[in-house]
Amino acid sequence: QIKKWRRDWKINLIERNNPEWRDLYYELV
Questions:
Q1: Domains of the chain by residue range
Q2: pLDDT value at position 6?
Q3: What are phi and psi of 9, to 5 degrees?
Q4: Do 29 and 22 contact (CB within 8 A), yes or no?
Q5: The whole model's pTM is what?
Q6: What is the number of other CB atoms lying within 10 angstroms of the CB of residue 14?
Q7: Distance (Å, rounded) from C-alpha 10 to C-alpha 19?
Q8: Tens digit of pLDDT for each residue in 1-29?
């Protein structure tokens, strides 16, 4: 549970700093 929360928090932090990161993430996955 905590790991998932930390991952989501990290993703939210990255999205806040770099909105384009989400597009890169979906291309990689």
A1: 1-29
A2: 81
A3: -65, -40
A4: no
A5: 0.39
A6: 14
A7: 13
A8: 778 878 888 878 877 877 777 777 777 76
Residue pair 17/11 in contact (Cβ under 8 Å)? The answer is no
Residue type, 9: W
Place of tokens 């930390």: 6
25: closest CA among 15, 6, 16, 17? 15
What's at 25, amino acid-wise? Y
Residue type, 2: I
CB 9 within 8 A of CB 17: no
What's the per-residue H, E or C state across the chain?
CHHHHHHHHHHHHHHHHCCCHHHHHHHHC
